[in-house]
Amino acid sequence: MSLGNIKTYPNNSRVAKAQIAAAYNGLTFDVENCEIAAIKTPEYLAKFPMGKVPLFESEKVNLFESSAIAYYAAVQKEDTTLLGATAVEKALVMQYIFFAENELVANISNWMLPLMNIYPYMKPNVDAATEKTKRALDVLNKVLLDKTYLVGESVTLADIAVVTAISNAFKLLLDKPLRDQYKNVTRYFTTLIGKEHFKTYLPEADKLCETPLKYVAPKKEKKETKKQEAAPKKEKKQEAAQDDIPKPAPKPKSKLDLLPPSKFIMDEWKRMYSNNDSDVAMKWFWENHDAEGYSLWKVDYKYNDELTLVFMSNNLIGGFFARLEMARKYAFGSLVVCGENNNNTISGYFLIRGQEVPFEVYDAADYGSYNFVKIEPSQYEEKKDEIYKYMAWENEGFADGKIFK
Ligand SMILES: N[C@@H](CCC(=O)N[C@@H](CS)C(=O)NCC(=O)O)C(=O)O
């Protein structure tokens, strides 16, 4: 018997959750694939104000939230075993339904969807979501050490919620080395998806991930990042138009090599900085600085409010610097993390050959995550103290930092 109609996009694991629960009670849903736009009409929004799928329509009730739809299926049979036998079991089933939704689905989505270019890609968010997913999987792994099912001795809605929640991760994110870190979860997952109703509604779940998703920047986004640069824009756009053709190796010569010679020798500055106290180094810096040949830039990470652990913020700087390899000859920078875990910022200063942010810098994948604001020579006096603190790592709240040299 069908309980009613579910509207969704195809292969939605949230719908599988409801369908599996229904199947255990000998019930079904009529499932209709639809465009999201089709449920944003006034008629649908009146019934389903969230305007999200899956949605469930029936004569008795209209429901949104997939766990509620699954619960509705589970609760249909009076003697169902899906919801736990005792008060304790019932509470545990609820615990895992919420755990699946809040700790698994939410974090797996924030890890997976940016890699699929469905959500905007921001590396710190993806890194944080990855860590949060791993934390939850770790917990699950411990819980499942000596259990076949999460609650009691047979399948409950807890298992249905958790297995459907992790199905996309097993398909797209968790390759063999990662699965090996969560052996109990993997054993549990493969056992459950081998069961009849899981097999019916998660037919592809046994295709475990071989190569995990990796972020590939969409071409358009790359071009936008480069919008900030004035002079070399046209040339870059033409290159970008041919993006499908494998790119030739980058030209060895930089435009920066064609600038008039400068009295300020970058290598000498880097040696000064590395081998002397900040007082000596900065004195040398200002005595030798060539404001025509080089420019100074205040750099601020754009998504400071999304940073989490200090060491992760510092790793982020490390990642940016690693991708600035081409700029090593032409730039020097100090970026620092100030603050504490879950409340920190990344900022600093860069010294760059020429008067613009050059290709060698703006081509780095993470450049778009930073604001580069030029400090004009007229501002040097007022900024000297701040620049000193960034170079000497004496900023208030300094927690960690990296030097690009
Ligand atoms: N917690 C909800 C999440 C539903 C949800 O986020 N649906 C997305 C697709 S996966 C959606 O319809 N988004 C359309 C929108 O945000 O307008 C559930 O489990 O049903």
UniProtKB/TrEMBL annotation:
Residues 219-246 have a biased composition (Basic and acidic residues). One of its GO terms (molecular function) is translation elongation factor activity. SMART domains: EF1G. CDD domains: GST_C_EF1Bgamma_like, GST_N_EF1Bgamma. Residues 2-81 form the GST N-terminal domain. InterPro entries: EF-GSTs, EF1B_G_C, EF1B_G_C_sf, Glutathione-S-Trfase_C-like, Glutathione-S-Trfase_C_sf, Glutathione_S-Trfase, Glutathione_S-Trfase_N, GST_C. Residues 219-259 are annotated as: Disordered. One of its GO terms (cellular component) is cytoplasm. Residues 86-213 form the GST C-terminal domain. The keyword Protein biosynthesis applies. Keywords: Elongation factor, Protein biosynthesis. Pfam families: EF1G, GST_C, GST_N. Residues 252-405 form the EF-1-gamma C-terminal domain. This is Elongation factor 1-gamma. It comes from Absidia repens.
